[in-house]
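Morning, I've got a small favour to ask if you have a moment. I've been staring at a protein lately and its backbone has me curious. You're getting the sequence in one-letter code plus the fold written as C-alpha cells. I've dropped the whole record in just underneath, so have a look:
=====
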Amino acid sequence: MSKVYVFLADGFEEIEGLTVVDLLRRAGEEVETVSIMGRKMIEGYHKIKVEADALFEETDFTEGKMLVLPGGMPGTRHLGAYKPLTDMLCDWDTKGKQLAAICAAPSVFGGLGFLKDRKATSYPGCLDGIPVGEYTEEPVAVDGNVVTSRGVGTAIAFALKLIEVLISKEKADEIAASIVYPV
C-alpha cells in the first residue's frame, strides 16, 4: 500500500498537520508523519509536542502517493529551507504526483514555481508577491496534482478534500458524516 507523508517541523500548526493525519487514517489511508528536524520529537506552534513516525533522512519515499505540508510559523520556513524536501517536491511536481499544503505552506510551492499557472489559496497574505495563476479565497483549491487550503479553520475541509482526491467523494462524505461535519 502506498503512503501519504505529512512533514513536521518545529512551529508547525498542530491542527493543520494532525487533522490531516487523523481523517486520512479514518478513511483507511496509510499516513506517516516525517520530521525534517533530525529528531522525532517536534514542538508545534502552540507548544504541543508531537513525536513523528520517522525522520526524513531515514525514510524511503518510493511508496508515496501524496506529500502534505502543514502551515504555521516558523514551521513553514523550516519546510521551505530544507533542500532535501524541496528537491523532492520539485521532482514530484514534475512527475504530476499529488502535493498538498495548507495555511502558509502553499508559499513553499509558490516559491518553487508550482503555482504560477495554477489556481491556489493560502492564509491571507502568504502568497503576496508570489506568482499564482488564480488566487482564490475558497477554503480549498485543487488544480491538477496540487491541493491548497487557507488555514486552521479549513483544516477539516482540506483533509476531506484529500480523501476525495485520494479515494473518492463518497468516502469523503462518509468520513464527514462520521465526524458530524456539516456538508
Residues 14-26 form the longest helix (13 residues). The mean pLDDT is 97. The chain has six helices and eleven strands. The helical segments are 14-26, 75-81, 83-94, 106-111, 155-166, 169-178.
